[in-house]
Amino acid sequence: MSSLSYSAELSLDGKSKVAASDHELIAAIGRGDEEAFQQIVQRYRNQIINFLYRMLNDYERAVDLSQETFLRIYTSASKYQATYAFSTYIYRIASNLAISELRQRKRRQWVSIFTFGKRDDEPEREIEFPADLPLQDDVMIDTERRKAIAQAIQTLPEKYRLTLVLRDVEGLSYENITEITGLSEGTVKSRINRARNLLRDKLQKYI
Amino acid sequence: MRENFEHGELQAAYPKALTEHCEKCPACKEYSNQLISLRQLLAGQGRVLAPANYDLKLRQRIAASQKTVNPGWFVWISQPMLGTAAAAIILIGTLVGLDTYMTKHSQPVSPSTASVTESKSNSSPVNATAKSAVEDIAKTLPPSKPLTDATVNANESKVNEPKSVEPKAGGDVASLENPGTLRRGNAGRSVSINAVSPGARSPRTSTPSVGGLPVSMVVYGAQPVLKIVNSDDIEQDGNNGSGDDTSIF
């Protein structure tokens, strides 16, 4: 895996990788196939960035942590064991990174108690969606509502936020969520229910 | 029914029963509608996409990580459990080493009225320490007169007088049976500190000790006699007043 010329090779032999399963691709990455890695990145980058963005409400940090996720997959591909679906594996890495980030933020907030600056007061950056990929929701959901929902999600405790985002934003099944979080299905359902009720109270204006 | 509402995902097997219940129960109907609306809101949030330079940045990051020097064996330090265990081992090792050092180099007995006997070779550190202690004490003493037989007899009689020895706390009273002998360490080396006068019997039977440590005796009117002898001599003839002793008068 010393060469990083996978983007150049993708145009030559990329079609053969498209049909490959995730496990086949990750096995190929473990053998040093850069093209397979590129295929994995293309498949999951938007999902992971979106998941991390909903968890963190910080686009640049979400992009940064998504790259860290792929970097970890790249470096540990040879040790990957296909026990679960690859999506479970990659979401688990991203979840751990997101939770670490949230805990670091919490520590920084404790430190900044003695300062007058407040991180949350920073103006929220608007995300520029690619013009050639218009979102269907752009015409239905205005900016204010999206901000309110995003901020309401941010107020949830991290354990509720993780399960809610995985279920209601990313649309994963309970089974996948239990594998990603390592929790029982009952606990997952309980946390999701609790998170929904909290959000329902906060977003009464919009529902 | 309420659980199904709370999960917001009514199973296909229950739609008829649910519909009938919601028609009868306005509270459940409102609750169900709110959850459904909430789920639609969450699912309808716009999805963010990767920036245009995502792949380039990722490649640069991978290249940078491959150039990073492998920290080697320092990796294990970054793990809290291993680091704690290593710190504990280092701490225990330090304490044990310090204790051993203190045991070997401690000087618990003042040889003011005693002779120091080294059972090992004279070149050992303990022997050197004993010698230096003897020399230091000798410097503090006034010049002595030459020892005569009368003086020796007088000293001997006073040395052999009964002494009042009070065992100190933690002391080994049983060791009084072997007075005046101080065994140190586990290296087989022993240092004997004995009250000796020329012509006296073995000091091991004449000097009291507590916990293996000889108790200094005050001999009024007599100059102390400081000797360095071999324990082999003591073991063999029980008399350390042999001619090759170093005596300071």
Structure, described:
The complex is a heterodimer of chains A (207) and B (249). With 207 residues, chain A is mostly helical. Chain A has 9 helices and no strands. Chain B contains 8 helices and 5 strands, in the order αααααβααββββα. Chain B has helices at residues 2-7, 15-24, 26-43, 54-67, 80-105, 125-140, 149-159, 231-237; strands at residues 115-118, 181-183, 190-194, 209-210, 213-214. In chain B, strands 1-3-2 form a 3-stranded antiparallel sheet, covered by helices on one side. In chain B, a hairpin with a 6-residue loop joins strand 2 and strand 3. In chain B, helix 2 crosses helix 3. The radius of gyration of chain B is 43 Å and the shape is elongated. Chain B starts with a helix and ends in a 12-residue tail after the last helix. Mean pLDDT of chain B is 64; it is low at 113-121, 169-205 and 234-249. At the A-B interface, helix 3, helix 4, helix 6, helix 7 and helix 9 of A face helix 3 and helix 4 of B.
Question: Which structural traits does this protein have?
Answer:
heterodimer, A: 207 residues, mainly alpha, 67% helix, disordered N terminus, B: 249 residues, three-stranded antiparallel β-sheet, two-stranded antiparallel ribbon, disordered C terminus
